[in-house]
Amino acid sequence: MILAAGRGERLRPLTDKTPKPLLEAGGKPLIVRTIERLAQAGFTRLVVNLGYRGRQIEAALGNGSRFGVTISYSREPETALETGGGIHQALPLLGDPFLVVNGDIATDFPFSALPSSLQGTAHLVLVPNPDHHPEGDFGLVDGIVTEENEERWTYSGIGLYRHEFFRACRPGRFPLAPLLRRAIAARQVSGQLHTGFWSDIGTIARLAQWQQRLQARETGG
User: Fold this and answer.
1) Which of 177, 180, 209, 216 lies most in the core, judged by the most C-beta atoms within 10 Å?
2) Cα 133–7–154 angle (5° rounding)?
3) Contact at 8 Å (CB) between 210 and 157?
4) Spatial contact of 144 and 190, defined as CB atoms under 8 Å apart
């Protein structure tokens, strides 16, 4: 599942007429780069949730055939259901377990490196803390995500989840973070650290940095 329903307030005015996942870097929308990497890793059935300007996203991606995948859509109100509510609504469209990827990240993480099975109810990909989030989110000890460790890493927006993770939830608008913290406290969340490239394209400055990185890669710089 690719999360693509958000408003992208910090990217205004770019997002006033274009939904954040369709913002381009290197001549290609952010969400298209994610879809291509997922397809390369063998993912063939994708779900995209839609909220703000969702029709534009659906028109741009279609049924996914030109990317070698099948795309289904989970439609939300323009105000969106937040991450937790959005995933919960899409559960009937998703396998078990399923992968969730934020639609506004850029990364070289190899999706094929994800575990083939889960011992708990979730598995998170963590990354070194970026400058804009120096305190990090969670610790990682012997493959288990914790909030008790002094050394903390940032949640990348890439995670595997079981349907059971959302068992106590009701339909509606709610965040994912409290559910994660409860599962982490119960030692139900495993994790892995990715030390390669990762960026949360949440601001105009970080979008420009991603554009510059792509240009440098294309020119061999």
Assistant:
1) 180
2) 20
3) no
4) yes
Q: Are 165 and 149 in contact (CB under 8 A)?
A: no
Token pair recorded at residue 173? 């608008």
Q: Classify burial at 125, counting beta carbons within 10 Å of its beta carbon; exposed 0-12, middle 13-18, buried 19 or more.
A: buried
Neighbours of 20 (CB within 10 A): 27
> What are 119-128's pLDDT values in tens digits?
899 999 999 9
In whole angstroms, what is the distance from residue 40 CA to residue 93 CA?
Answer: 21
Q: What is the CATH topology of the domain spanning 2-219?
A: Spore Coat Polysaccharide Biosynthesis Protein SpsA; Chain A (3.90.550)
The pLDDT tens digits for 132-178 are 899 999 999 999 999 987 899 999 999 999 999 999 999 999 999 99
pTM of model > 0.85: yes
Residue 6: both structure tokens together: 């958000």
Determine if residue 57 is left, alpha or beta; phi over 0 gives left, psi from -120 to 50 gives alpha, anything else beta.
Answer: alpha
Contact, 143 vs 192, CB < 8 A? yes
* Domain assignments of the chain as residue spans, ordered by start: 2-219
